[in-house]
Write a structure and sequence with these properties.
This protein has about 90 residues and is an all-beta fold. It contains no helices and six strands. A five-stranded mixed beta barrel has the order 1-3-4-6-5.
Length: about 90
């Protein structure tokens, strides 16, 4: 896990997905595009936010402190990278 200060580039809509891990069988999810501070060409991350944290609305340009978990998985012979925000604090 890595904690960074990032800027919100885009905030997707909150929606629910089926999840066997949650108590009621559904889980809130939102996708954010976050960019490192600095310039126009700094690294950008597409991040999934889950649970109660996904219900928080972020605006373009908001500065956040995010703890990101990077993980990869294989599916049908292809490797995919997932980035999940485990903590997100709006400044």
């Amino acid at each position: 896990m890595q904690t960074m200060i990032l800027r919100v580039v885009k905030c997707g809509e909150c929606f629910t997905v089926k999840s066997e891990k949650s108590e009621d069988g559904v889980l809130n999810k939102r996708t954010l595009v976050l960019q490192e501070l600095g310039g126009k060409y700094e690294p950008t991350y597409v991040v999934s936010v889950l649970g109660n944290l996904a219900t928080v609305q972020f605006d373009e340009g908001d500065i956040v402190i995010a703890t990101l978990r990077f993980q990869s998985r294989e599916y049908n012979g292809q490797v995919f990278m997932d980035v999940v925000a485990t903590e997100l604090i709006k400044k």
